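Appendix B, record 7
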Amino acid sequence: MTHPHSHPRSHPHSHPRSHTEIDPPGLALGPGYSHVVVADAPGRLVAVSGQIALDAGGQLVGVGDLAAQTRQVLANLHAALAAAGADWDHVVKIGYYLTDVTQVAVMRAARDEIVPAAFAPASTLVEVSRLVRPDLLVEIDALAVIPA
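Structure tokens (predicted):
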């Protein structure tokens, strides 16, 4: 689908895509996200609840360590996506919730260790005063579309 007055991002993906990432003229390119994501084809919508830094046994990973918590959260998010038959390439929207937004570079560096370089869904980053547990530093949720 062609979107007037837009600049679609072009990059290789390992899975069929059901969406197009767009950066409209007049908006600065975002580091690791797209301003607009359009679902171009019918598909299955997958909503993944906010994931936190608990391992499979329910133990916190990375007490006081945002990078370690981010890696665990993304591992949990990937496992949740996989359970629905999705992967990073299917993610169209991701939400980041940090207790200290000044540490966004730490979170991004940990994210960049795990997700493909071309990962650029629509994105929201919000600083929150607290998460469900006081020892949590980050929570991440996502929406994905799997092609029909």
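Remarks on this record: Confidence is low (pLDDT under 50) at residues 1-6. Helices lie at 66-83, 104-114.
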